[in-house]
Amino acid sequence: MAIDLGKIGMKVEDVKCGIQGSGIAPATMGEMIKDNIGDEGNLQLFKISLNKKILGNCTFSFRICIEGTDSGYSYQLSDRLAKDQLWATLKNQQYLPDVELIVKDKAFPAHKAILAARSQVFADELKKKQVVKGGLLQIRIKTGVEQSTLVKFLHFVYTGEPIGTLADEELLQLADQYQLTTLVYLCQHALKKIEALQMANLRERLNDNVEIMSFSKITPEEETKIFFDRTTPTFRCTSLLKKSENGQSKCVMQYQNESIFIAYYTEEKEINSQLINQGYITKSVLIHFTCAKHRNFGLQVEDVYCGMPKSDKLGYSKWMKMESKNFHKNAELLHFAVKVVLNFTTKPQENFQFLVNFDIKTISTIGNYYYETMDDKWPTDLWAAATKKTFTDVEILVGTLKLMEAHRIILCARSPVLNASLNNNSNTEKAIVTFESEFDVEIVKLFLKFLYTGSLKATDGVHQLSKLATMYQVETLKNVCQLLNRVPDVEELTNCLI
């Protein structure tokens, strides 16, 4: 049962449950069924029927898939330092704030470049404002919100992430006033109350078959432990395997334009031919799953599960742990397999196919670079402000060629070297940052985009990018490039293939 996850912008998408065996993870896991207790409110109930009575002690293992309550609030790969550094500029009043937000006669220094990038309302208002005494623009917040609410609002503006509860009417008013649509939807969902009907439905579901349950009651000996680690993302990918493709490998997931997960199946033997008259033959099938090049992106594979969705005639609800003969977490190449039973059609005109889902649990080995839920618009808003020259105050040159314009606040926050360089310019000047002509202009643009978005979407020009990251002390990018530049261990790779 999940209660009030919506207050932090989350909801449960699905839950898997299994009994822990002798291994690190259960050999099989079942999909728990979401009970229909009503869509309103922040209450979710998932149930599963056990196929045998539990005797003695055992450990249940759950895998809970969490998603954002709004489609615009999702998992994005990003440099954690990008958010922390931008928030520090506001929290510590670094890098010369140029605007004040006035709430109940208290001034909150901020930066017009970030406010305007994240809100068109702020952008339009700031263009009309005149500089007042002290060289700052002033915006008076008229909704009469508490100062603590403004801090939560600004945290979402600067980082794309909420801080504290989203069930805040004043925060919703601010988000609506400044047209932060993702924050509006998150607050609206968080403010939904658990209705009496939902509670009644929940009690009814929990009391179903209470007499039967009393004979096999499961009582935990200790409190349930929930582990959340942002450095252990689980990727879910789907592959449609066709009978005509027996033994043929196909990519099931690309990561930054590289094929890192590959799947195929091989038929083994016929098990049961009694269904021939119904048009089906039961066969044993091996599903294969290969991981390659994942280490180049700082991913260490922990385990792989596969399963198929239910249907009337085919598929099953079990998720099975795929096994590897020579599993080594740091291996260049990993191969997993699992045996399943399927019903194949005997009709030659039909090309039998089946959908397979894979869940791949990994560990991100690059410090501060992992998947987190955030406002999808946060990185794109900031970068768009640079490309559209919205309140830009820095010119970027490569040699003598002007590449683009940028924002002093972001460059200073993200690079100590650029911060030292730009501090030599007064706040009113349009400063100039010059990159040596030895660097390709597109690589410099990739470097700047990483400063703004905290994410690297391409792997081109890694050597130059690594040099820039080192030169300007952008630690996370430097670590990313080091892995992309790494040379695979040929001996280890050969051993994997033998």
TrEMBL record:
Which SUPFAM superfamilies would you find in this protein's record? Answer: POZ domain
Q: Could you tell me which Pfam families the record lists for this protein?
A: BTB
Where does the BTB domain start and stop, copy by copy? Answer: 97-161, 392-460
The record's section on PROSITE patterns has: BTB
The identity of this protein, by name, is BTB domain-containing protein
Q: Which organism is it from?
A: Daphnia pulex
